[in-house]
Design brief:
By secondary structure, this protein is of the alpha+beta class. The chain contains 6 helices and 15 strands. About 25% of the residues lie in helices and about 35% in strands. The protein is globular, with a radius of gyration of 19 Å.
Length: about 280
């Protein structure tokens, strides 16, 4: 059986150090943007969370509506309409605990700079590949290292040497009028915002390509951007590959502008209203 635990601001969770959730990081999580009292892209987040729970045999006995009810209860008690909602499902004995909590909204309106990392490749064959799990220490170590060197994030390759994702986001680039992104087979997380951008591109009749790309492909990219649930679409202006900084074009990017504009509407149209005005 699973249990829902609502964590209000300032409260702490009691974890049993002998259980797998604490001892092994055996758990999954979701990060969901809260905007104007709405959970953005809730259906896609819930589907991914539920699918990973089944994949790892994590007990999730509560319905989607019960989880939404717990989130609503938390938001009302916090008086929160803007920010980020987090779900964590941690293994405990034969069951699991589902933690519902919040954090402040992430502000990342500035341009991003990336450091390509080839020495710690993403394992596309890992049992955890493609899932958002609490085994996140490697991501954080690489992210902290890149930020200490003055970059926003790290851009990883997988064991085949092809581009994968950053520590916290999916990668897109525009080349010869095509919107390109690493395929799911590279081991990347199937990002909720990634999927939405691909749908938007299709609606705009933009040629889309999901494939395997070596870092050199970015040298003459017309635009590069990142996607994740916290910040949506974030434009990249600098990429460092083996000490060589690639400065991306600063001129008008009509395709990227169209995607950014369409995304704002999609975010509201694919949300669940939890708090009325």
């Amino acid at each position: 059986m699973s249990e829902i635990i609502i964590l209000k601001s300032g409260e702490a969770a009691a974890l049993n150090p002998t259980q797998s959730g604490f001892a092994h990081g055996f758990g999954i999580f979701e990060t969901i943007k809260l905007s104007q009292g709405r959970l953005c892209f809730w259906a896609a987040h819930w589907q991914r969370f539920y699918a990973s729970a089944i994949e790892f045999r994590l007990s999730l006995d509560h319905s989607e509506q019960q989880i939404l009810g717990a989130i609503r209860e938390l938001l009302i008690s916090e008086g929160l309409r803007e920010g980020t909602v987090k779900l964590s499902l941690l293994k405990e004995g034969a069951g699991a605990r589902c933690y519902v909590y919040t954090r402040s909204a992430m502000a990342a309106n500035d341009l991003a700079s990336l450091q390509v990392q080839t020495k710690s490749p993403l394992n596309q064959h890992s049992r955890l590949a493609g899932h958002k799990t609490h085994n996140y220490m490697e991501n954080m170590l690489l992210l902290e290292s890149a930020q200490a060197a003055g970059f926003s994030d790290v851009l990883r390759v997988n064991t085949a040497g092809v581009l994968a994702e950053t520590a916290v986001a999916n990668l897109f680039f525009v080349k010869e009028g095509r919107l390109c992104t690493p395929a799911l087979s590279t081991g990347i997380l199937p990002g909720v915002i990634r999927a939405e951008v691909l749908r938007l591109a299709e609606s705009l009749s933009v040629p889309v390509e999901e494939g395997s790309y070596y870092p050199a492909v970015l040298q003459d990219a017309e635009a590069v951007f990142l996607t994740n649930s916290s910040v949506g679409i974030r434009i990249v202006d600098t990429i460092s590959v083996e000490g060589l900084d690639l400065l991306l074009p600063s001129e008008s990017r009509p395709l990227l502008d169209a995607l950014t504009s369409g995304f704002s509407d999609a975010e509201m149209n694919n949300s669940v209203l939890l708090l009325d005005d």
